Amino acid sequence: MTDFERCLLDIENELMTGKCAWVADFNESFRNLKIGDTSFNMVVRGNTRGKSMGLFLSRMYSYFTLPSYDVACFVSCVDSFGERALNATLREVTNYLKNNDLKWAWLVFLRKGPFSDDIRKAVENMKFQELGVALIDIESNTVTPSNSYLGRSIPKYLKLKRRP
Amino acid sequence: MKTLSRIQFSKLALSFSVVLIGFTILYFLTIYLATSTLAYNRLILLINIALSIVGGWLLYKSRFHVAFSFDELGFILQKGKKERIEHKWQDFSRVSLLHLGSGVFGIRLYNKQDKFVDIPVSALKLNPSEFRFEVMQLIKGK
Description:
The complex is a heterodimer of chains A (164) and B (142).
Chain A: H1 3-17, E1 25-35, E2 38-47, H2 56-65, E3 70-78, H3 83-99, E4 102-111, H4 117-124, E5 131-137, E6 142-145, H5 149-157
Parallel strand pairs in A: 3-4, 4-5
Antiparallel strand pairs in A: 1-2, 2-3, 5-6
Chain B: E1 2-5, H1 9-35, H2 42-63, E2 66-70, E3 74-79, E4 83-88, E5 94-99, E6 105-110, E7 116-119, H3 128-140
Antiparallel strand pairs in B: 1-2, 2-3, 3-4, 5-6, 6-7
């Protein structure tokens, strides 16, 4: 199993059964999904209301208090990565959000090694409200999130396991 | 063809409980109508439990038991006695891993018309993630 595959499994577990359950019920995971011209290593779909497995009262509570927004998390493993590729991916994800009535999404790029300063600055300056972007260096576990509420929430919820 | 079939103890317990409750209610109704009392003793309880074990097993086998057979060409999914689904892997184009809540997983197979079939991997006691990759390879035809 490669380092990328291990990280994808970590992220998938975190989204579907881990801490991310506090954000949304991510319940369906696709691997190697092609959207438009861009291929994503993993796309996990979910809903902010989810399905409460509790008893009658907790089901009623979640039904009346939680909004029902469809959401997604896109994960892409990259080697060399430029601003043009970043913008193309952002365009595809934004179109996907519109076409599929998704309220918001996380977009995560994984790389073995540090991202270039240009890319990091571009991501740090992003202020999309409906899209949180993060760059994760899987060697050092460094996360560079975009400057929005959704972006800043990524390092809080998506944590990769430290490996020796 | 490789066949997978595991007993789901939670469903078996559910079947047993449903039948036991059913027999108990039936007993009380009958005895009340016959004698106008609600007499109950240990022997009756033991007979009810014995009948519920047999009835629960039959209910489980007819409603909940899952058997899954597959090879490189296709699969057969049998749920209980009535529901039998048979497909070729080539009928499908996409695979997803599905979390159904409380750690229960399934594999969803989509065809080109976006219709889908779910394989209950947790009921078969398979590793959901590994089986998903195996199914992806089978769909690719490799």
